[in-house]
């Protein structure tokens, strides 16, 4: 039996999209300039073939915008939503659930100091009083808060401006801000005009994890578990295909085109990503408890920083491993 057959065998018998969908179409959010294996499946029709329904893909700039679109019912699933914007939304009362771990990427979400300042990790205290472009409520915002806390920088002295990464990258290039925080292609462009304070490994050593999830409104996930399982099975298949170097030459150009990037930039970006296989996602490190504990930590940091009003007592109800288990042939 092929990998695809194994992944899909447990999720046969698709149901009509109910709940938030209200139609036989699936609306999925994703990011441009954020290359991932699922885009090969997206562009080659693998999702439509497996789901038996039309999939409408919509590009977003931030995970907070994804939350808003899911709240309005315009989006049913968000691929690679950052954990911090997810936490911000559910802490405010939005009923969302995580259904898989999309990607881990400590080296592809960071803060860049303007070159002219000549500030590095040994002189980071000098960032006090400076202007920072930060997409609030995102993974980059969480990383910014944790790094400034680590360096003892008093954030209250800084002028923190809410900017999506493309805007922030343009601002640091123009000299309009002193610090950029963001990800993907915007981070690459920002690094042309400055330097990072900490490497991905240095951030992980401080407990600053950076990973994204696939998320959806809880009612949609529960009422359409078969559809969600089929979607996750295709995603897992694409990840497994990418893990085999023999498929790289075929997949990379397709992923690059869909990401709005050239092949070299796509390769440089995706090589900093880790796509955990399903069995690892279901382990204690991730959805078996680790992600829930991490979300609580993120929420507490945001509360302390005054970014959100309060945290939930637990985020266990915001993870639903049922569809992923179904996709893997589990119970």
Describe this structure in words.
The protein is α/β, with parallel strands linked by helices. It has 16 helices and ten strands. The chain has helices at 3-9, 38-43, 46-51, 63-72, 83-91, 139-151, 165-173, 184-190, 200-205, 218-223, 225-243, 248-259, 263-270, 278-281, 290-304, 322-327, and strands spanning 25-31, 54-60, 77-82, 96-104, 109-114, 131-134, 159-162, 179-183, 194-196, 211-217. Strand 6 (131-134), helix 6 (139-151) and strand 7 (159-162) form a beta-alpha-beta unit. The protein is globular and about 55 Å long.
In short:
With 331 residues, the chain is α/β, with parallel strands linked by helices. The protein has helices at residues 3-9, 38-43, 46-51, 63-72, 83-91, 139-151, 165-173, 184-190, 200-205, 218-223, 225-243, 248-259, 263-270, 278-281, 290-304, 322-327; strands at 25-31, 54-60, 77-82, 96-104, 109-114, 131-134, 159-162, 179-183, 194-196, 211-217. The protein contains 16 helices and 10 strands.
Topology:
Layout lengths: L2 H7 L15 E7 L6 H6 L2 H6 L2 E7 L2 H10 L4 E6 H9 L4 E9 L4 E6 L16 E4 L4 H13 L7 E4 L2 H9 L5 E5 H7 L3 E3 L3 H6 L5 E7 H6 L1 H19 L4 H12 L3 H8 L7 H4 L8 H15 L17 H6 L4
Parallel strand pairs: 1-2, 1-3, 6-7, 6-8
Antiparallel strand pairs: 3-10, 4-10, 5-8, 5-9
Helix pairs in contact: 1-11, 5-15, 7-8, 12-13
Any descriptors?
alpha/beta, 5-stranded mixed beta sheet, globular, single chain
The radius of gyration is: 19 Å
- Spatial separation of the terminal alpha carbons: 20 Å
Average predicted confidence as pLDDT: 91
Helix content: 40-55%
| Overall body shape | globular
Instruction: Record the strand order, biggest sheet.
Output: 2-1-3-10-4
Strand coverage percent: 15-25%
